[in-house]
Every structure is written in structure tokens, then in C-alpha cells.
Sequence to fold (339 residues):
Amino acid sequence: MPPTHRPARVPRPGGECNTAPVPARREIGLVGWTGRNIFIGLAQMNGLTTISQLIQKNKTPLRIEKRCRKHIEPWLSAVFQSEHLSLLLGSGFTTGIGYVAGSTATGMGTVTFGTSFDAQINAHAKASAKIANRGEENIEDQLRSALALLEGLRVMQSNDDAKALRDALNLKLKEFFLPLLATERGIVASGNADKQMLAERYLVSFLMSFASRAASRERLSIFTTNYDRLIEHGCDLAGLRLIDRFVGALNPVFRSSRVEVDVHYNPPGIRGEPRYLEGVVRLTKLHGSIDWRLENRILRRIGIPFGVSAVQTPGGFAPLLCSRRRQALARQVGATSRA
Fold:
């Protein structure tokens, strides 16, 4: 391990400080993504040993921000034009844009199913969260545990218990689904035109910062664990084309074999020399989406406008949140499509 300097006092938003070791000067080239690491690196670049000295020298946070941008932006520009670039977006992405627009984001807290298996579901969810080193369990852990239990009840032919658990699952999925639509609606129809325009500007600026790559580079790959369609909405506003492995215009169907599909065009007056189209992004929704639906072992994307107030789907409410079994079915669908 490299040597460290004496601890530094790290400022917090509330004005308090905590003690943190400052890495050795030869580690300055490694840019950290936390505010603490950025401040420490900037302090060392200015020949200082503590963040407190940096604050005293610059007097105001705005001056510190300007000095940070001078060092960080060139590095980010180089990273964005690297051959391969992937972006992982979580709930903080929606929370941030929603905050600017004045909309509240959907929480991931635990729920109560109201069945006789709640204790077992919660215990299994808590254990799975602990194994993943994620701390407290959330609704996703509970859904995975409940879906696994549902399959077990079907194997045991406990039809009454399976029906009760399935009904409880559908109810909680609906209660989870509707606030997601409310979050989308709050972003596009917040009632404050200035906030809405500012949120859209931030959204487009953020996505374009990553997607504005030379066509000769590998496409930007966006991976997200979010169920909402904020990324898709932002790409529509920015004029970006998404490759998400769905094929079709009216009833898009998921095709896992379409991962290598790309978009080319023929320049005017030039034949036989197709070029890559700029502004193309690959999107992978790791946990599913509120507009996915599994019908007869086929994964489809149903048409739900962004921010719509109510949804009516054929056969009732049944959004798709991917379980292991459904992911396996999706892979089977892709294998069948290639045959």
C-alpha cells in the first residue's frame, strides 16, 4: 500500500468536517468520483496538505468548483471519446431530474404482501440482500423471493396458496407501477414551465455529454436498473436513436440476437460505402421496464405514453419486472428467433 499523509478535514454540506486520510501524491492521477477525493486531489495539485487549507485559499465554493472543472473536464472529455464507453444509471438519475422538475421519485422501500408467507418472504429477501452486500433489503428483493416461492407452490400443487400469493404480487406491482407513472408525469407536466424546461435541458445535456461520440467509435452502451422511461424520453428529446433489442413497429418483440444490430447510411452521391450513423445509443434495462409484458412466452413492449395518468392493458394489469425465470424465457425467445 502506498504511504498516506496526515488526515485531512473533509467538509460536509452542513458545515461539519470529518477526518479522512489524504492519498500519496503519486495517486493524484486517479480521479475519484466522490467530492472528498476531488477536493483532496485539487489540494495536492496546489501543494497543500489539507482540504481546510484549500478552502481558506479559495474563500468561496464557487472558486473551488471552477478550479476543479479546469482539471476534471479535460479528463472527462478524453474518457468520453475512448473506444468503448458504458454508462450505468440507477435511481439517482431519475431522482435528480425529478428534483429539478419538482417531482418526487418512487421509493424502493419494502412492502407488506398480506399473505401467510410474509415472514418467510421477508427473511429470504433480507438474507439475499446481505449476501449481495447491499445492506437493507428492498422491494426488488421481496419480489424475487415471492416469485421463487410462487414457483415452489406451483410445483407442490398448492393452488389456493399460489393464487393468493399471485394476487398479492399483482396488487403490489400495481402499487409500485402507478407511482412510477406519477414520477414521469411530474417531470413532463410539473405545472411549472420553467422547471420543466430546466429539467429537460439537464436531461438532454447529460445524455448528449456521453452520446456525442465520433461514429467511428464503439456505440455508447447505457445500462440501467430503473423501470421508468426517463432515458428513452431524454433520447427522444435529444434526437438519439436507441438500439434496445426490440423489433417491430406496432408490437415490438424482444430479440436477444439483435444485440449487434447497428444503423448505417449511404452518403449522397457515394455508393457502396455505408457509414455509421451518429447519435446511436445501445440501451439495456437490466431489471425490466414498466412497458414490458410477457405474453405466451413472448416478451413485448406495449405502448404506454411517457407520463400517462392511467394504463389499460389487455387482460388487466400485468407489467413485467424481470425474474430469473422470465429472463430465461426471454433468452429462449431469442434462441427461437434465430432458428
The mean pLDDT is 77. DSSP finds ten helices and 14 strands in the chain. The CA atoms of residues 33 and 265 lie 38 Å apart.
